[in-house]
Design a protein that fits this description.
22% strand, 41% helix, alpha/beta, seven-stranded mixed β-sheet, globular
Length: 176
Amino acid sequence: TKIIPWGHKLSFAYVTPDVHDEELYELAIHVCETNQVFCSSCQGIFVDTNDQNVLESIGVRFFEQLKKANSFKGKTDMAMRGRNTIMLYKDMLEKDNQDRILNAEGVSVTIKPDKELELSYLFRNVWIKALPRTEIILSLKKHKNHLQTCGLFCAEKDREELVTLLAKAGIVRITG
């Protein structure tokens, strides 16, 4: 029996470049329903790519789906929207412009150049990063005590390989 240590956990989504907009919308609905405050809530999205253009494209596509889901579910608390607006503005001022921040209607997607797992700003603010499948174990294994759920969005032909890699990295739960 695997013992799951107590403590803060992080969850994320992992998508392949062929992810459908309907799947991105389902993920956006999850982000809006949970406001990313549960251990099983998606903090960000890793994309199976090294191509910056693919990463940007999926980031923009997810941002559109997140705005649509936000409109459908209703906006989050005004205090949280204000807090996150200030945090994102601070990021824009302090960063060396490597992050691309898409921000509107109380939601945001930050396209980042690194491959590190991190907590998002919560309340419908998602990061997106490239993480090719060949680097999953190397990048995530060091966080094995903090990993919980991975929402996996891929073609059926890729599922078995990706599930195996994510499980080896320490993910406790893999779901659609």
